[in-house]
Amino acid sequence: MACGCSSTAVAEKISWNSAVFVALMLLFSSCESNTRDFTNQMFEECVNNGNYKVCDEIYVVREGETLQTISEKCGDPYIVEENPHIHDPDDVFPGLVIKINPFNYRP
């Protein structure tokens, strides 16, 4: 079955679809960063107002944090010992999930 479409018409359709795809990707990526900024702002407001526990038992590392800063903030000096999936204490990245046991809650 012959299409009857010229290669120029096919190329234009592909070009148009690619341009729409790139524009949508740019739009979605900008919305994602605005959502993160809003979420971080709301988190900090809750912490500053005292409405949110800073360290739950399950903690997700945020950008710029180290095990030392998390340990100081949460009061848990044994983070590496309690999280066997952390092989290198210097290799901590945003999104890493760790278990926290604040020192004052230890038996």
From TrEMBL:
<protein>
    <recommendedName>
        <fullName>LysM domain-containing protein</fullName>
    </recommendedName>
</protein>
<dbReference type="InterPro" id="IPR036779">
    <property type="entry name" value="LysM_dom_sf"/>
</dbReference>
<feature type="signal peptide">
    <location>
        <begin position="1"/>
        <end position="33"/>
    </location>
</feature>
<dbReference type="Pfam" id="PF01476">
    <property type="entry name" value="LysM"/>
</dbReference>
<dbReference type="InterPro" id="IPR018392">
    <property type="entry name" value="LysM"/>
</dbReference>
<keyword id="KW-0732">Signal</keyword>
<feature type="domain" description="LysM">
    <location>
        <begin position="59"/>
        <end position="100"/>
    </location>
</feature>
